[in-house]
Amino acid sequence: MSATIIDGKAFAAKVRAQVADEVSQLKSEHNITPGLAVILVGEDPASEVYVRNKGKQTVEVGMNSYEHKLDASTSEADLLALIDQLNNDPSVHGILCQLPLPDHLNEDLVINSIAPEKDVDGFHISNVGLLGTGQKSMVPCTPLGCLMMLRDHHGSLSGLNAVVVGRSNIVGKPMANLLLRDSCTVTIAHSRTKNIEEVCRAADIVVAAVGRPEMITGDWIGKGATVIDVGINRIPAPERGEGKMRLVGDAHFDSAKEVAGAITPVPGGVGPMTIACLLANTLTACARANNLPEPEGLTA
Ligand code: GUN
């Protein structure tokens, strides 16, 4: 039997609608408008698309969007001065510095200069430590989106065997921490893992976040398991015409869906959830800054 397709596009629209609802209440009851500042250094075309989408969706849910586009040659001192200004601006509740940064800028230094309570990416070392020790923090957007979809599909995740394939700081490690916090038994698998296919086959949940197109095929998946595919890879699609490309995940969708119980497609799975969770994090940061109750169901 074919797997249930987890519709991330529809789920993200639901999250955005909830955020918009809560933003409208904040405005009418407290005269507060959440604000998100996004910094883009340089002209990386993919980053420009992401930043444009973030700005558009921020405005659509009724928040203020502040875009800071800086020249690729911007000095570290100037970038840090801008972050300092945003850290001290009470109308800004969330700050995101789009990665990657040009080579002359120290990414760790820049991320760690963002005030942790405004770090809506959850990349600041304080937020990483808080998440790792099970304390309240800002949680990275992509793993948060994956967690929301898993909780929605399974209800409780307690006792489930989860394998995260990939050990990045942005997805793999925070994902593993979140699953552990929801009482899964967690394995992080990676390029050096022995018998990786067998490790994956034993899992109730496989989160694929390696950045290798279609690596995880159906024979790696246990019968009825849930597959969350974080990969977004562009591969040649000659069947669509010369020079055409198509998007695929890190899982091989057609074979995996024949074995899995549920699976997220690419596109239309995890991808749309990332910006929805960025908006959710901005709302959470705004609520915390104003000592108001946190929105329900939008945090980890
Ligand atoms: N570049 C690609 N994805 C991300 C993200 O989630 N956050 C930031 N800051 N930069 C990115």
Global Rg:
19 Å
Give the class from helix and strand content and strand pairing: alpha/beta
Arithmetic mean pLDDT: 98
Beta-strand segment tally: 11
Poorly predicted runs? none
Q: Can you identify the CATH superfamily of the largest domain?
A: NAD(P)-binding Rossmann-like Domain
How is the CATH topology of the largest domain named? Rossmann fold
Side-by-side strand order of the widest sheet:
1-11-8-7-5-6
Quaternary structure state of the chains depicted: single chain
Instruction: Note the gap between the termini.
Output: 32 Å
Alpha plus pi helix count = 10
Amount of helix: 25-40%
Global morphology: globular
Task: Please give a structural write-up.
By secondary structure, this protein is an alpha/beta fold. It is built from ten helices and eleven strands. The strands form three sheets. It has a six-stranded parallel β-sheet with strand order 1-11-8-7-5-6. Strand 5 (about 160-165), helix 7 (about 170-180) and strand 6 form a beta-alpha-beta unit. The longest helix has 23 residues, at about 10-30. It is globular, with a radius of gyration of 19 Å. The mean pLDDT is about 100. The site of guanine has 6 residues, from strand 4.
Labels describing this entry:
binds guanine; 2 domains; 6-stranded parallel β-sheet; 11 strands; 300 residues; Rossmann fold; single chain; 10 helices; alpha/beta
